[in-house]
Amino acid sequence: MIINAENSGLIFKNDRKDNERQPDYKGSVNVCGKQMEIALWVKENNRGKFMSAKFSEPYAKPEDAPPPPAREDENIGRETMPSHYKPEKYGKDDSVPFALLFAFVGLSFAIALCGQIMA
């Protein structure tokens, strides 16, 4: 998903998580005009809950691969959200505000880092 607004992004709960190595949240961000993917893991230690983050280059499919078959529900009224996103599925989750705060702090750090690199 391409984010057009610079220094912003979207993060969604990973409802396709099959094992502990996969992230709890995934998303796309635009940092200093560059598209990046972000993955977040909810962890806990003796000081409490925290999140670990990883930024990576967006996945690029090999050019030789055939295009995937079209899905029926793809982009019907939800052009800005992944087709598998269903808000009613998540209900009340007390970790969502925590995830948003962490994402904001992470983006702020990335923007500050970007400013140092460009200077």
Main sheet properties: 4 strands, antiparallel
* N-end to C-end Cα span: 29 Å
What structural category arises from helix and sheet content? Answer: alpha+beta
Radius of gyration, taken over Cα atoms and rounded to an integer in Å: 16 Å
Percentage of residues in strands: 25-35%
Number of helices: 1
Outline: globular
Give the neighbour order of strands across the main sheet: 1-2-3-4
Quaternary structure annotation = single chain
Helix content: 10-25%
User: How many strands appear in the DSSP assignment?
Assistant: 4
Query: How many structural domains?
Result: 1
Low-pLDDT residue intervals, each spanning 5 or more residues = none
- The string of secondary-structure elements, in order, is EEEEH
Mean pLDDT: 76
Structure description:
With 119 residues, this protein is of the alpha+beta class. The protein has one domain. The protein has a 4-stranded antiparallel beta sheet, covered by helices on one side. Strand 2 and strand 3 form a beta hairpin. The longest helix is centred in the last third of the chain and has 24 residues. The model has no long low-confidence stretch (mean pLDDT 76).
